[in-house]
Amino acid sequence: MNRKFAPLLLPLSLAFIAGSASAVTSSYKLCSTNGCSAGGSVTVSSSYAQTRYPVVFAHGMAGFSQVGPVDYWYGIPQDLAANGASVFVTQEASFQSSDVRGEQFLAQVQNILAITGAAKVNVIGHSHGSQTIRYVAAVLPARIASATAVGGPNTGSPVADIIKGVTTIPGLGPVAAPVIAGVVNGFFSIVDILSGKAYEQDALAGLDSLTTAGAGAFNARFPAAMPVSSNPCSEGAYTVNGVRYYSWSGTGHLSNVFDPLDLPLTATGLVIPGANDGLVGRCSSHLGQVIRDNYNMNHLDEVNQMFGLVSIFESNPKTVYRAHINRLKNAGL
Prior knowledge:
Blueprint: H1 6-22, E1 25-32, E2 35-43, E3 55-58, E4 66-67, E5 70-71, H2 76-82, E6 87-89, H3 98-116, E7 121-126, H4 129-139, E8 144-150, H5 158-167, H6 173-195, H7 203-210, H8 212-221, E9 239-240, E10 243-250, H9 262-269, E11 289-295, H10 317-330
Parallel strand pairs: 1-6, 3-6, 3-7, 7-8, 8-10, 10-11
Antiparallel strand pairs: 1-2, 4-5, 9-10
Helix pairs in contact: 3-4
């Protein structure tokens, strides 16, 4: 070894050791009405997403928090935690009415508030999770800093209307509907158990909630931040009862040729008038301040599914979430 470099080795080694020792790790939390536990550990690399209040996620219909190595919000909680956010991923019944899911989410939010000692939380819901977070923002506004709907069927989905219509076909519908619903309920009971909580499933109640009529009834009771009826594709009030409302969504279908779920979403998108993400119309997704409603993303791309197979010609979903959490941070939330 060249002796003239030897004096440099010790300080460099000490700096490396000090840097390693000072690395901060964080974990995002997985929750249900049973409580919360660490979902995984990450190294915190920045404070870009370090909001004043914790970030709490609510999944959509047929969703879950985490099953084995599979996250519903694929890679998003980890990315936000690595950028300084305090993240909680909740679990509601995969199939249930908006009110039942709202009560399940409410119990978890109250638990998270108790665990963290935070005065408020920022809530984010995807798909049916939009109604879930809106329910809690309405009944507990003093403890909700912001509510963000991603691909939310806030005025319902024509896809749900069509399925509901099939279940009422004379003769066939009333016989087939309970059988199919029973199969769906049974399967997603298993999914929920694997995700950490055995919830009672009700596929028909969940379906009713997402029809145009069901969403309309929900909006009549919880109208906060919805666009005015005379212009349903406008923005809603940005702030209601101290809660800041946001929304964003996509209008893509075939975003990645390797994603096997793109074709089914393309097919369902054909029955929805106008631009849509395969399950939810562009205007139906509007709530509060509309960040953007035409990302080249389909309904599952909005949560970085399937396994991150999204468009390479659009902002990555993780980037979109990270930028939004930074938006909340800059707003003092």
